[in-house]
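Tokens in:
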């Protein structure tokens, strides 16, 4: 039985991918380089260091990987504070339904801790999560399973009792390596989500009825629960 749900952040909780593209394109324009945003698809859900290492190689960038990681982080946070950031449709309702079922809720993101904190502060989301794991706490980025195993351990729940919601191929690979049930969220249609146990395009597709089915709960409880 599933006892916890672990959410990715970018592209699952918040619609941040378009913002990341805007920030990158503007940054590269300042360097007089036309950035190909398709490069970012293969690194979605992975580490910023690996991403910038590849960009440094492709574009012969002059500064260190660390410089570009920090510069993009700074610019992204500035954009969030100036323009805000949008929640993924129906995600808060889904989280609340999970909480109504007494499931533990965790956030596990490869994002920098600072960006995660700004995101949750702007949207007042921290109250929903029992545990939060960012790149600060792990050594190996997705598709390594470390981040999800860390989250399940923090929740004191076995991996096979956890469900992960992810939008990237790297994240899904990490969840499956961790031995967890995984839902792929296919908002953009540009990732290989074939390894997910279930794929949805809208969180409304995860209804109250099939939540009970997914988790092996007694469907008769649905009619007697005051929470529904």
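Residues out:
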């Amino acid at each position: 039985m599933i006892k916890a749900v672990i959410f990715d952040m970018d592209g699952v909780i918040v619609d941040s991918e378009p913002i990341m593209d805007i920030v990158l394109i503007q940054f590269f324009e300042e360097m007089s380089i036309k950035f190909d945003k398709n490069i970012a698809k293969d690194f979605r859900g992975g580490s910023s260091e690996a991403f910038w290492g590849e960009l440094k190689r492709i574009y012969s960038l002059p500064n260190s990987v660390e410089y570009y990681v920090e510069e993009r982080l700074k610019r992204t946070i500035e954009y969030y504070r100036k323009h805000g950031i949008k929640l993924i449709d129906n995600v808060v309702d889904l989280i609340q339904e999970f909480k109504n079922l007494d499931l533990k809720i965790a956030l596990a993101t490869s994002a920098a801790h600072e960006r995660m904190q700004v995101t949750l502060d702007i949207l007042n989301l921290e109250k929903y999560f029992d545990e939060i794991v960012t790149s600060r706490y792990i050594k190996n980025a997705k598709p390594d399973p470390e981040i999800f195993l860390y989250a399940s351990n923090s929740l004191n729940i076995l991996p096979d009792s956890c469900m992960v919601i992810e939008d990237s191929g790297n994240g899904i690979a990490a969840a499956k390596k961790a031995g967890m049930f995984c839902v792929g969220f296919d908002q953009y249609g540009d990732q290989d989500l074939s390894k997910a146990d279930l794929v949805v395009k809208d969180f409304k597709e995860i209804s109250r009825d099939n939540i009970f089915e997914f988790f092996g709960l007694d469907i008769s409880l649905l009619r007697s629960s005051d929470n529904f």
